[in-house]
Specification:
The chain is mainly β. The protein has three helices and eight strands.
């Protein structure tokens, strides 16, 4: 069936994707697979997600390895904090970074889980804290943009940040770090 979406305000733009595929029954039972599908769909979308406030604050290119290292700032609003030992708190997030070509197809990706700790259990202070996350992703020649997606396993909030090729090319070069 075709669905047409229109808006009265000519300054607004509707962004949709063509088609719908019903999920397989088994896919709902595998949280890891479901998480990968959600991250992939959010990464390829051109729609910004702001349930989690994510921004890219530093980019370093590693031309010798064909990679880029992104440092991202994640605000703690909407994170599910849990009490940890010695008056600390902890939360988990999953971050995916993808290299997208001009048709927003994924040409490289990297996914990583992070456990973030804070030295407080005060809810007001936790909501105002910020956390730095650093990841490295391959940057093939066809890459037109890099998109980072962060999600929480508990509440399903998503946040995205995107970097276009011009910004990537303007980033400083450094040799790849030794493992």
């Amino acid at each position: 069936r075709r669905i047409r979406v229109s808006v009265r305000n000519p300054n607004l733009q509707v962004v949709t994707k063509t088609g719908y595929y019903a999920p397989e029954k088994e896919s709902d039972q595998d949280p890891r697979r479901r998480s990968m599908v959600e991250l992939s769909e959010a990464a390829q979308s051109s729609v910004p997600f702001d349930g989690l406030n994510l921004s890219i604050v530093r980019v370093v290119r590693h031309p010798d390895g064909g990679t880029a290292e992104l440092t991202m700032l994640l605000q703690s609003t909407n994170l599910d904090w849990e009490a940890a030992e010695n008056g600390k708190s902890a939360t988990q997030v999953e971050v995916g970074i993808v290299s997208l070509d001009r048709s927003r197809e994924i040409v490289a990706s990297h996914r990583q889980k992070f456990t973030i700790y804070s030295n407080t259990q005060d809810v007001a202070r936790l909501a105002k804290s910020a956390n730095l996350l650093t990841m490295t992703v391959k940057v093939p020649h066809l890459t037109k943009s890099l998109r980072a997606v962060v999600t929480t396993p508990g509440n399903g909030y998503l946040g995205t940040a995107e970097l276009d090729r011009r910004e990537l090319d303007a980033a400083p070069d450094e040799p790849s770090p030794t493992p």
